[in-house]
């Protein structure tokens, strides 16, 4: 009997060892041959969200409550660092953070704004099919990025997996400001998802560096401002959010309280959000008529 148990344990250990080796080999292959660095990878990653969140998902957007403001809830996009994204310092290149943000932001917009995007696209043509652009009705509706900025807090190592939590920071008369947090995989782990109530997260007790503070799990922070255009015409964010079902149209009764809570949250982020617009102030320091330069590559 003891011999049988011993053989069973040995066989089980061998199987687990083989699985670990196979898993490690797959991770190495993924690290070297990641689709993220293939030609047209940016388009595939972004239009994946367009197809599977915007085009095929016909469910209504969950209504906001005073305790759960749908408009400000984040989405999570998981990614990794393949060989093609490593810089000379041996970690994730700074430039690749922005392509990751593009994919995460596309997923966020196609998930949260799917009803508004669908409504505006029916009034004309979408970004997929811009058409002839003759007259307002045939002009495409599309989001356009106006500025981006990123703060790099910690290096992301080769092969490291991480999550990008993207949410709306604020908005004004023209721009919608998005903020994206690069965090260690599993560090941001909600136990409830408003858009997928049947999916529940797993409560995890993760250890962090720097005195076990949870903010030490944040690897980078990026802010982007986006404008929604119908041809050359700017669509006001509040109007678009109403079409999305994220912002109440009327201000009576409970809706007025909800609208006040949304406005309070918007004001909390607007000062930080508008700092990204300071980039344009650099125009005053650039002399385009200057005839002297140091070198040209």
From TrEMBL:
- Classification via InterPro entries: HotDog_dom_sf, THEM6_lcsJ_thioesterase
PANTHER family per UniProt:
PROTEIN THEM6, PTHR12475
The entry sums up its family as follows: Belongs to the lcsJ thioesterase family.
Recorded protein name is Capsule polysaccharide biosynthesis protein
């Amino acid at each position: 009997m003891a011999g049988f148990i011993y053989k069973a344990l040995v066989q089980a250990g061998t199987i687990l060892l083989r699985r670990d080796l196979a898993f490690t080999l797959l991770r190495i292959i993924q690290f070297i041959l990641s689709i993220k660095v293939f030609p047209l990878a940016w388009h595939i990653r972004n239009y994946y969200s367009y197809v599977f969140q915007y085009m095929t998902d016909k469910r209504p957007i969950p209504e906001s409550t005073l305790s759960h403001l749908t408009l400000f809830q984040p989405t999570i996009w998981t990614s990794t660092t393949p060989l093609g994204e490593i810089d000379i310092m041996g970690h994730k290149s700074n430039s690749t953070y922005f392509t990751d943000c593009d994919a995460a932001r596309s997923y966020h917009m196609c998930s949260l704004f799917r009803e508004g995007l669908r409504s505006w696209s029916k009034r004309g043509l979408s970004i997929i099919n811009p058409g002839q652009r003759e007259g307002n009705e045939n002009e495409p509706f599309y989001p356009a990025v106006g500025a981006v900025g990123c703060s790099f807090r910690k290096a992301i190592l080769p092969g490291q997996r991480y999550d990008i939590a993207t949410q709306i920071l604020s908005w004004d008369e023209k721009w919608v400001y998005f903020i994206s947090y690069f965090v260690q995989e599993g560090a941001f782990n909600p136990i409830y998802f408003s858009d997928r109530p049947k999916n529940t997260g797993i409560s995890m007790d993760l250890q962090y560096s720097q005195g076990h503070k949870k903010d030490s799990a944040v690897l980078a922070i990026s802010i982007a401002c986006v404008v929604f255009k119908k041809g050359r015409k700017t669509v006001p964010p509040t109007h678009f959010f109403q079409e999305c079902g994220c912002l109440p149209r009327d201000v009576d009764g409970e809706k007025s309280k909800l609208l006040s809570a949304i406005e309070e949250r918007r004001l909390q982020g607007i000062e930080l959000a508008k700092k990204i617009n300071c980039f344009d102030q650099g125009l005053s320091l650039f002399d385009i008529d200057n005839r002297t330069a140091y070198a040209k590559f």
